[in-house]
Amino acid sequence: MRKTERYPVQGANALWQLYKTVSFWKVVRNFIVIQVARYTPFLSVKNWMYRTFIGTRVGSRTAFGLMVMLDIMFPERIRIGRNCIIGYNTTILAHEYLIDEYRLGDVIIGDEVMIGANSTVLPGVTIGDRAVIGAGSLVNRDIPAGAFAAGNPIRIIREGTEE
């Protein structure tokens, strides 16, 4: 079970009520920063931009591949450990808007995690240290440390060993 906070809405669907949830100017700023970072070839500059301008916690030596998309509305709820690889075109979400509610959840990615290209990480998920996520996976639940997991929805293929 993902760890999310649920906020019911009345009337129009939750996405239609977006700017009651988060500031328009925050979304504009985050969008600009994330779009520039997606194409920046300098890994240290990407990490600096994420830390400085949008509040994402990024560990040292973490590498974001080209086109990685962080949550535009709540990037401050994403924490990524040190020495991770986030593969090409991966999306990391900390929110989801539904018809009758919206949900927010912290995303915690441990140290030395590798996430394969074109994966999606949903809100409220924790990925343990040294876990490996296969390309094209939908991470919709917690992944233990050291595990190899893949698929849509994700499943554990091999459990890790503790050192």
TrEMBL record:
Keywords: Repeat, Transferase. GO terms for molecular function: transferase activity. Pfam families: Hexapep, Hexapep_2. The keyword Transmembrane helix does not apply. This is Acetyltransferase. It comes from Effusibacillus lacus.
